[in-house]
Design brief:
2 strands, Arc Repressor Mutant, subunit A, 2 domains, Diphtheria Toxin Repressor, domain 2, mainly alpha
Amino acid sequence: MKESGEMYLETILLLSYSNAKVRSIDVAAALKVSKPSVSRAMGVLKGEEYITIDDKGYISLTTEGRRVAENVYERHTVLSEALMQIGVDEDTAAEDACKMEHVISEASFEAIKRHMNMNKKM
């Protein structure tokens, strides 16, 4: 999946935590992109069966869409936390984690998680 698709899924997930009914306009506002851009992305994600859109336009994640979104969100939160632990300010850590979450290998990500869990036990 492309980085942009992951960003849309993660955004839908986060919006669904605070609002059970997520609409395209909510996604556009959260990502600061145009409604036509969201519409195109939703069409692709729906076609790939990551989301469903009901007859009122409400967007829901499918089981696979939720799995991908939660995986991306976990990467974001873990990487943000790791960067802050080494002295990066919160805003920069969140911005950098957003870029890193899409390209880091599974092996590197798991190593960072293990390292952070070891530090929590100390």
